[in-house]
């Protein structure tokens, strides 16, 4: 039985795959299954911001995980943490710049 929720999930997976393929990463990226070990996503993050997601960060992602779900989950947790940390740091940086500009504008008006 095929329901709307599983259709939406499949469409989201395919959309994510299509977007990720635009980055031309080194790891195989032909199916949604290729995304389950986290290697492709880690390489995409490095292309998005190679300074933040540097080689040291990328090397913490295990490449040869096979069907070991524990290693896959570990990789995906590292990716989630990296995204959350990155988002927090970028938002803090933007907030500080915005605050600084606001104060400067107030001082010179």
Automatic annotation (TrEMBL):
It comes from the Eukaryota. GO terms for cellular component: centrosome; Golgi apparatus; microtubule. GO terms for molecular function: dynein light intermediate chain binding; microtubule binding. GO terms for biological process: cytoplasmic microtubule organization; cytoskeleton-dependent intracellular transport; protein transport. It comes from Micrurus lemniscatus lemniscatus. Belongs to the hook family. This is Protein Hook homolog 3. Keywords: Coiled coil, Cytoplasm, Cytoskeleton, Golgi apparatus, Microtubule, Protein transport, Transport. Acts as an adapter protein linking the dynein motor complex to various cargos and converts dynein from a non-processive to a highly processive motor in the presence of dynactin. Facilitates the interaction between dynein and dynactin and activates dynein processivity (the ability to move along a microtubule for a long distance without falling off the track). Predominantly recruits 2 dyneins, which increases both the force and speed of the microtubule motor. Component of the FTS/Hook/FHIP complex (FHF complex). PROSITE patterns: CH. Residues 10-109 form the Calponin-homology (CH) domain. Pfam families: HOOK_N. It is found in: Cytoplasm, Cytoskeleton; Golgi apparatus.
């Amino acid at each position: 039985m095929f329901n709307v929720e599983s259709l939406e999930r499949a469409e989201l997976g395919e959309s994510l795959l299509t977007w990720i393929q635009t980055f031309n990463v080194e790891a195989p990226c032909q199916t949604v299954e290729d995304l389950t070990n986290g290697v492709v996503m880690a390489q995409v993050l490095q292309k998005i911001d190679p300074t933040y997601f540097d080689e040291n960060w990328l090397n913490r992602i295990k490449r040869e995980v096979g069907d070991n779900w524990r290693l896959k989950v570990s990789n995906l947790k590292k990716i989630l943490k990296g995204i959350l940390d990155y988002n927090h740091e970028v938002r803090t940086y933007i907030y500080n710049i915005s605050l600084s500009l606001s104060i400067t504008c107030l001082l010179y008006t």
